[in-house]
Amino acid sequence: MRDILYERNTKETEIKLRIELDGTGASRIETGIGFFDHMLGAFAMHGGFDLELLCKGDLYVDTHHSVEDVGIALGQAFARILGDRKGIQRYGNFFVPMDEALAQCTVDISGRGFLVFHADFQKERIGAMETETILEFFRAFAVNAGMNIHINLLYGDNDHHKAEAIFKAFAHALRLAVAIKDGSGVLSTKGTLA
Asked: Based on the structure, what is the number of domains in the chain?
């Protein structure tokens, strides 16, 4: 079973999560940021990850610390679950349409964290969540998980649709990358991923 119970506490946030990679997509998420909860629920469902996540953050400041710190905690949890990355597919790529929006995400579980993010939003917020924190979430996840994540929003008008297409494309690409492959070695000519 590939799962973990993980906690991360700072002066800005207290995060407790449990994630199972080979789940059914069930989730229970409470961050105090409605739209972010919606995106994390979509991530869990479309990734097939069982996710319980509770974040108590300094929302009186803004949503930045909570969103970024959840990205850090989730990234660290994935890194610990995957360990030496033996036996996984390593790569994943997926396109998701959401009405008029189309997003693509490509993932390489390489051991080296790097984010390429090509997406623009028209509004400052979607619900209570600042749209600029979407990039911060994915950057934090990529660096802490040791993954290359490339996100391209090809087009779209509605910011809700654009963000949802991105999170769903990420979930599907990650699901493909963490899938168990035949054999137990590391998919690298170096014999290691880092």
From this structure: 1
Task: Find the domain containing 29 and state its range.
Answer: 3-178
Is the whole model's pTM more than 0.90, yes or no? yes
Residue 191 counted as domain residue: no
20 within some domain: yes
Q: How far apart are CA 164 and CA 56, in angstroms?
A: 23
| Rounded Cα–Cα distance for residues 193 and 47 (Å) | 23
Between β-strands 101-108 and 148-155, what pairing exists: parallel, antiparallel or unpaired?
Answer: antiparallel
**Is 97 inside any structural domain?**
yes
Residue 187 lies in a domain: no
Provide the residue-wise pLDDT of the chain in tens; the chain has 194 residues. Answer: 799 999 999 999 999 999 999 999 999 999 999 999 999 999 999 999 999 999 999 999 999 999 999 999 999 999 999 998 888 999 999 999 999 999 999 999 999 999 999 999 999 999 999 999 999 999 999 999 999 999 999 999 999 999 999 999 999 999 999 999 876 665 544 555 55
